[in-house]
Specification:
The chain has one domain: Alpha-Beta Barrel (TIM Barrel). It contains six helices and seven strands, in the order βββαβαβααββαα. The longest helix has 13 residues. Bound molecules: iron/sulfur cluster. The site of iron/sulfur cluster (SF4) has 15 residues, from loops.
């Protein structure tokens, strides 16, 4: 049973450099029904696997690394635990963290769900960049940055919402800057 105080995790990586730009804390949730052939994390698919952790513990882990200002939600499928992921994402956002999320769903479908599901709306509203769409093995390329297959989009959620059409994220437009330590 999902609630907004715990989250079912596949695992966390405290210092990822492959789940979005810069040094990031990556949260991999457990459970994903997309079943993409060639999935990078097949062990994260069973809904009953992983470990259940208090969201407060995940937040404490993020805060413990003073160098981290950006967090990525991945999986697994964050939008299959919308209450828990929204609680985590909104708390991080309120503390000024940047947030990326990976999903096997399409952005347009999530916006439709958001009309009926407050947690999906809250989660989408806290995300800066959404990497959307399933992993498609036939479109896989190692040349792609921060996505596994060419069908996946890096969507700038703020600009997409203000312009009323999908706007792809670009490093230059985002204002994201390398920390001085890079
Ligand atoms: S959406 Fe991601 S985690 Fe889920 S099956 Fe596809 S590649 Fe694996």
């Amino acid at each position: 049973m999902e609630d907004a105080r715990t989250i079912r995790l596949y695992g966390t990586v405290a210092d990822s450099i492959v789940d979005g730009p810069g040094l990031r804390f990556a949260v991999f949730v457990q459970g994903c029904t997309h079943r993409c052939p060639g999935c990078h994390n097949p062990e994260s698919q069973p809904a009953e696997g992983g470990t259940v952790a208090p969201i407060a513990d995940v937040l404490a882990e993020v805060r413990a690394n003073g160098l981290i200002r950006d967090v990525t939600l991945s999986g697994g499928e964050p939008f299959e635990q919308p209450e828990a992921c929204a609680a985590l994402a909104c708390a991080l956002k309120a503390e000024g963290y940047g947030l990326w999320a990976y999903t096997g769903y399409l952005y347009e479908d999530l916006e439709r769900r958001a009309l009926e599901e407050p947690a999906v709306a809250a989660l989408l509203g806290a995300i800066d960049v959404l990497v959307d769409g399933p992993f498609v093995e036939a479109q896989k390329s190692y040349a792609l940055k921060w996505r596994g297959s060419a069908n996946q989009r890096l969507i700038d959620i703020g600009r997409t919402r203000s312009q009323g059409q999908v706007v792809l994220w670009s490093n230059e437009q985002s204002g994201w800057e390398k920390p001085p330590s890079w």
